[in-house]
Design a protein that fits this description.
single chain, alpha+beta, Immunoglobulin-like, 8-stranded mixed β-sheet, 8 helices, about 20% helix
Length: about 350
């Protein structure tokens, strides 16, 4: 029905709200003395957000589904505890509250170590329907762990997948020479890779270690490594900003908020891969734009981040690709926000 309505529209006008309040719950699920979760939490604050801190270990319990439902996003951080994570109710069983939150349309970013090991044990492990990792994270299998399965080396770095749905990510290196216990996974076909392990002659080079899934009304973003131990604080902050902007953009694009900061027009719409993008900005703004499929996977960069002059600007695009008919999105990315605008390809 949506595509039918769009197909009779010659111009689609949607307003972008970059002023809305994005509420974030941060779950610290780490029983250690390294303060990794605290550093990660501070990076989210430094990125311009005001997350609410929930210490699962101190509380002795997972946040309830009712509590999580009050937030636009749940960021769940785990570290190298190995067992007893409240991501799994503290007893290696599926977390009914977390599943209920996702089933109700939640948005989850889980990041850290051992959350697969805690529930499923050492790799390799194959998943199927009924497993949380299959149903919600969208994984076919847990294939290997850095250090455990690479000859004791550890992952030298992780790099963004060339088709990562999360824009503006950078290569991550560590405060240590290498990082142990990074999980390599195989996602289902409908799940987008976000990060891969990397290193010259590294045995697990190119193993997927970050995934993004659009489920039935919910999304899950999983980084199977601990971002709190990046080589520098700035490196961590830049990648937190990129990730949070993407997740906030997904939330905004699914909302009914009407508080426009600038107007976007796409025409003709529908089209065959060539269209005009008209922006009407109140002031000069740093923006980037890209074309994605309905699952958020990047199809093509339209333009890299640049200063777009205030007032009306028109960009002409020809994808140059043979795109299958259907619904796509032009995603506009500002400094800390992103939003997708639908485009129908005939």
């Amino acid at each position: 029905m949506i595509i039918r309505l769009l197909s009779i529209a010659s111009i689609l006008v949607i307003s972008l709200n970059v002023q809305g309040q994005f509420s974030v719950l941060f779950v610290d699920d780490t029983d250690d003395n390294f303060e990794n979760a605290e550093r990660f939490f501070e990076s989210i604050e430094d990125a311009g957000y005001s997350p609410v801190y929930y210490d699962a270990v101190e509380e002795g319990d997972s946040p309830t589904v009712q509590y999580m439902a009050e937030f636009d996003l749940v960021v769940w951080h785990t570290a190298g505890d190995g067992a007893g994570l409240y991501f799994w109710n503290g007893d290696d069983s599926d977390n009914e509250d977390l599943m209920g939150y996702l089933d109700g349309g939640g948005k989850l970013w889980v990041v850290g170590l051992d959350f697969l090991f805690d529930r499923y044990g050492s790799a390799p492990v194959t998943f199927g329907p009924g497993d949380f990792a299959y149903d919600y994270l969208g994984l076919e299998s847990h294939d290997a762990q850095a250090q455990a399965d690479d000859g004791g080396i550890g992952a030298p770095s992780v790099v963004p997948d060339e088709n990562s749905p999360v824009p503006d990510l950078d290569t991550l290196t560590w405060e240590f020479e290498t990082l142990w216990w990074v999980d390599g996974v195989t996602p289902r076909e409908d799940v987008a890779p976000v990060f891969r392990m990397a290193g010259e002659d590294y045995p697990l080079n190119d193993a997927i270690c970050g995934t993004y899934r659009v489920g039935q009304g919910y999304i899950t973003l999983a980084y199977y490594f601990d971002m709190s131990v990046t080589e520098t604080d700035d490196m961590r902050l830049e990648n937190v900003i990129a990730t949070m902007a993407f997740l906030e953009g997904i939330s905004l694009s699914n909302s009914d908020t009407e508080s426009p900061a600038f107007d976007v027009q796409i025409y003709p719409n529908p089209n065959r891969g060539s269209f005009n993008l008209e922006l009407d900005l109140p002031q000069t703004t740093s923006l980037a734009a890209r074309l994605t499929d309905a699952q958020g996977r990047q199809i093509k960069h339209l333009f890299s981040r640049q200063q777009v002059t205030g007032g009306k600007s028109v960009f002409q695009f020809d994808s140059g690709l043979q795109l299958s008919p259907g619904l796509y999105f032009v995603q506009i990315i500002s400094d800390r926000h992103a939003k997708g605008f639908p485009v129908v390809i005939e």
